[in-house]
Amino acid sequence: MTTTTASPRSVRDYTHPLWRRLLATRESAIVGLLIIVAVVAATTVRGFSQPITLTYLLLDVTPILLIALPMTLVMITGEIDLSVGSMVGLSSVVTGALVQAHWPFGVAALVALLVGVLGGAVNGLLVTVVGLPSLAVTIGTLALFRGIAVGTLGTTAVTDFPQQWTALAQARISGTTIPYVMIPFLILLAVFAIVLHFTPFGRGIYAVGLSKDAARFSGVNVERTKLILFVLTGVVSAFAGIFYTLRFGSARGDNATGLELQVIAAVVLGGVSVFGGRGKLYGVVAAVLLIGALSSALRLANVTSDVINIITGVLLVISVVAASVLAWLQKKRRRPNATATTAG
Predict the structure, then answer these.
(1) pTM
(2) Res 335 pLDDT > 70
């Protein structure tokens, strides 16, 4: 992915009050919009406020929530991974094929995770060692992984999974409407948030996105950082594929087709710069939930899927355009101040 200098923060940005730095951001705007959509939908759309609606909303967005975590880190470095949807399908097929061959489900799932590690490593090595652009590499592996998945099972589907596992994938925490799968997601969210926002490795991720050369001079191993992130994307996508398989009780080669576009849309909508160097995980999580809540409310209002896709696309375009306009206004506002300082 071509990297362009993102709008870097200056010392002046940190002279504003804390409340302004926390609230006057794209991420906070997405959180606010999520709250507005949820409140409006709960009061105007019949059935949206039912507990079962929240359960199915979370089940629907879980694969996107999971994959969006490592995808956020990858895109902050200025790269992209378009193969995640195909990896979900491939891990689903691997799990199904091994279960069909009478392997224990736990062992089959472990092999699927290893396939995710291998797929992520292939992407990472082609980007970091060979030096190919991640956009071209992951378009190629998107087709490769999907081709292997479809070629393995053909048009058949594996549906004979252990009932205790399929039931667990849809079960709710006792006394709540929250699915159990939210527990591993919250654990992963905490790990990724700590790594990104509170460790030297996370600061290196932002540095790579802003300038690879400057990051190298600062002691960041750019290639190793990107390789680790691509491997994480692969293994988390494989985990999402295992959940996807159990949730729907079916392993097919075309599972999760197009999921990569939903993930990238949510990450960009959540405030991550397409040029790298900027983004926060809470904005991405809020964006995934916003898209999920909006889609759920519109479906309950009998809006067709085509119209839902149009609305989501328009929302994404507005978000990207608004970010570009705000960056341009900030640069324009800083220019007179810089001129005045020089003149003084």
Answers:
(1) 0.88
(2) no
